[in-house]
User: What shape does this take?
Amino acid sequence: MIKRLLAGILSVFFVAAVAAQDYPSRTISVIVPFAAGGPTDTVTRLVSQAMSKSLGQTVIVENVAGAGGTIGVEKVAKSKPDGYTLLLMHIGISTSPSLYRNLRYDPVKELDPIGLVTNVPMTIISKKDFPPKDMKELVTYVKANKDKVTYANAGVGAASHLCGMLFMTNIGVDLTTVPYKGTGPAMTDLMGGQVDFMCDQTTNTTPQIKGGKVKAYAVTTAQRVKSLSDIPTAEESGLKGFEVTVWHGMWAPHGTPKAAMDKLVAALQFALKDPNVISKFAELGTEPVSQDQATPAALNAHLKSEIAKWAPIIKKAGVYAD
Ligand code: ASP
Assistant: This one.
């Protein structure tokens, strides 16, 4: 009896070990917690395609949007840790624990880090026929029309939400915000004139800025962005101390076997050296992180320090969601 039980237990371990050795033997899904066609979607598709070359399996992107990205993150946190469901998320994973009173997951405990991916600049943009010509005029206009100006974002916890919150705190106004499931659909409405302005990542806004479909006021990085070099930084245009970049990372559910994690880390590092990823990223105003940042240790440390960094800022701004 005991012998049979032992044999049973051993065979379970054996099957698990073989499964980890064979990994990946089928399609992998990367969950993007925002709508298709937006900035996170764009970054994820480029990286996933390159990772699939290294893993020898198809890597598909699944958009699980809503509630500022928290629905998609929760889905991965509660998924089976077998290496077949992954997450690509950004800075919002570190602000949500302070923004949401009832978050149903702990990003540090329920996700295993694979590595950092990229740091994307943001741009403050408006619909084409919005009256202000530059940042100085934008601030004056927004203050004078604060009851009618609308700001689009991708929900509480999105990067566009964080940037908007910092903008409003910086200029001392509180505006009506219009939440979308991602800045992909928000951009469609901005171009259609249904909302007035937003702050969104260059990975979504570059084609529209270059195509003259929206007006750009500033980039949110300390230095100008190479691919958009005629746009001033927020600091240069008068928003003192205003700086935000959108770091991205990749995670697996907590408990994913080490053999799978090792392959995923190698595949991410491979993808971030891929010439197509590097050149597409550059066109969109960003670049891959260095190889030593594309590691579990770097992402683990970064996530913890970002949660600690944003908590007091969000508390001071007094913004909460349930
Ligand atoms: N990254 C989001 C998206 O892909 C937008 C945001 O975070 O503001 O739509």
About this structure: The CA atoms of residues 20 and 257 lie 7 Å apart. The beta strands are 28-32, 59-63, 85-90, 111-127, 150-153, 176-179, 197-201, 214-219, 245-253. The first helix runs from residue 2 to 22. The two ends are 52 Å apart (CA to CA).
